[in-house]
Each structure stands twice: as structure tokens, then as C-alpha cells.
User: What shape does this take?
Amino acid sequence: MTRAVCPGSFDPVTHGHLDVIERTARIVDAVVVAVGTNISKNALFRPDERVEMLAEECAQWSNVEVTLFEGLLVDFCAANDIDIISKGLRAADLGYELQMAQMNRQLTGVDTLFLPTAPQWAFVSSSLVREVATLGGDVTSFLPGRIAARTMERVASRHTGATSDM
Ligand code: PNS
Assistant: This one.
């Protein structure tokens, strides 16, 4: 049984992420979507919120589960019987992604499977979505409906200072 991890920050999860998760789930037996717990000061959602949102979106695939992870990804892989790290690859990220894949392989032998990002999502990243949303742009076409609604809600509450979200 081949198990793969799709790791990331997912802040927030985009159509591009879900495309890679779905394609991975068709290739391997089981997929663990692992949400990194490193909190950046620009984060829109807490790690537990990202897990909750991803779990909702991934419920449509029976062989996909979602969890938090902290520490080294290779240690998470070893502890969870993960054979493969699966990642979407955009041209702009090639250098850094290759470096991480080679480092991870050197550390424990775990290999990385790169799936070319679907062309329609190639320009989409969570960081750009956060920036566009924060500055009042429309991000609805890059995100599943529920995620777009929560993203706009979060951005609006930050602007009004209505809630403390982090
Ligand atoms: O969505 P992101 O921000 O590109 O995800 C990056 C992530 C979480 C996959 C990456 O930073 C990671 O693997 N972090 C875990 C720490 C680690 O293993 N670092 C060494 C990488 S070679």
C-alpha cells in the first residue's frame, strides 16, 4: 500500500492545491494532507482552521485524510509510514522545490513526486490570494466557495478589527 503526503501551509487552500491532492489520490492508495504549523505573522488562518477547511473540501475523496504536522517533514513521513512526498510544481518554484526534494531524499531516502500544476491554476498561490484579498481584490475564482467566503469574512474582520483571529 503506497501512502503519500501532500504537505503545505494551505493558508488558504486553493483550487490548485485541491487539484494536486485529487491527482495524487488517483495515483497512490492513501493520501495524508499535512498542514504545517509554522505560524507566519502574515497568516490569515490558524493551522487548526486550515485543517478544518481542508477536511471539508477533501471529504469527497475516501482515501484522503488531513492532519497537522510540526517539525521536519521527513520525520512526519517516517512516523506515518509515508513513502512519497507529492507536490504541485510551478515553474517559478522549481529551484527551491528541487532543493527541498533533494534535501529530504538525502535525509531519509524519502522521494518527492512532482505533479505539474494544472495550467489554469499555475499563477495561483496562497500568498498572492492573501495579498489580493487583503487589498480588496476578488479571489472567488481561485478558491472553493466555502473557502472564498471564509477568506473574505476573515479579511473583512481584520479590516474592522472585529475579531482577533490569530
Ligand atoms: O505551502 P508551503 O508554505 O510551500 O509549504 C511548505 C512546507 C510546509 C511543505 C515546507 O516548509 C516544509 O516541508 N516544512 C517542514 C519543515 C522541514 O521539513 N524543513 C526542511 C525542508 S527540506
About this structure: The pocket of 4'-phosphopantetheine is lined by residues 7-9, 36, 72-73, 100, 103-104 (CB under 6 Å). Helices lie at 15-27, 47-58, 73-79, 94-108, 126-134, 145-160. The chain has one domain: 3-122. The mean pLDDT is 94.
